[in-house]
Design a protein that fits this description.
The chain is an all-alpha fold. The chain has one domain (about 1-255). It contains 11 helices and no strands. Helix 1 runs antiparallel to helix 2, helix 2 (about 25-35) packs antiparallel against helix 3 and helix 7 packs antiparallel against helix 8. The two termini are about 30 Å apart.
Length: about 260
């Protein structure tokens, strides 16, 4: 039991550092929750709970950048809440065995997004700059796309930030601080409403999740002080290697045995 607590706390600590510097902390925390014996759907719900505090603190830190876009925030928050509810509901309707089989594919999707997310965002920014004057139909399609992003986030938290950044680039945003603030606001709204659904359905492993949460908060605090000393390219490379290895492991567990 002591080792389990230590492993969960260290996973949260490391995940918190990664989320603050390069992203990808869920590649550490979600598999660790599975490894200590939590059922896949509960592990996913618990990971959302453990990650939410980091989203909230980050959004608060960038509140001044969000204030400049205050007119569009109610619409973004409403769509995020609706998507989060739908995604969480879909997760709870999914049979445990089916979700277990989907885990390697979800991780693969999140890994590919993490690796190529920067290039995708740059390409979408160029596309958006050529079409600054979107039609009303285009604005509606962007809202539908945001809803899809938020449904994904309610269903599976890993990779949500990267997908949201891609959406914001497509929507025409170019200021990175504003994009990060909006990304964290969307992630916060999606996670909070999904957590409410998970609590109502008793899907969160509170003991294990609280340990991961404590580690995540400490990891974020540590990262705030050491982020300038750590080479982000090397950290990102580590996340890519770790995510590829974890994804391959889950493919092996599901299909090679």
């Amino acid at each position: 039991m002591t080792l389990e607590v230590l492993f969960l706390f260290l996973a949260g600590l490391f995940g918190g550092v990664l989320n603050s510097i390069a992203g990808g902390g869920s590649f550490i925390t979600f598999p660790m929750l599975l490894f200590v014996g939590i059922a896949p759907i509960s592990a996913n719900a618990t990971n959302t709970f453990a990650s939410c505090a980091g989203y909230m603190s980050g959004a608060y830190a960038l509140r001044k950048d969000l204030y400049d876009h205050r007119k569009e925030l109610p619409r973004i928050i409403l769509v995020s809440l609706i998507g989060g509810i739908l995604g969480a509901w879909l997760l709870l309707q999914t049979p445990e065995a089916l979700f277990s089989e989907a885990i390697p594919w979800l991780l693969l999707f999140a890994t590919v997004l993490f690796i190529f997310g920067g290039s995708l965002n740059r390409g979408l920014k160029k596309l958006a700059s050529r079409h600054r004057h979107a039609s009303s139909a285009g604005a509606f399609l962007l809202l539908v796309l945001l809803l899809g992003v938020c449904i994904y986030g309610g269903f599976f938290n890993a990779g949500l930030g990267i997908i949201t950044l891609s959406y914001l680039a497509l929507a025409g945003h170019t200021n990175i601080n504003t994009m990060n603030g909006l990304k964290l606001l969307v992630s916060t709204a999606v996670s909070l409403i999904a957590i409410a659904v998970f609590i109502y359905n008793d899907a969160i492993a509170w003991y294990e999740g609280s340990i991961v949460l404590a580690g995540t908060l400490m990891g974020g605090f540590i990262a705030a002080h050491i982020s300038r000393q750590l080479p982000q390219k090397q950290v990102r490379a580590f996340v890519i290697i770790a995510s590829c290895g974890i994804t391959l492991y889950f493919f092996w567990v599901n299909y090679a045995q």
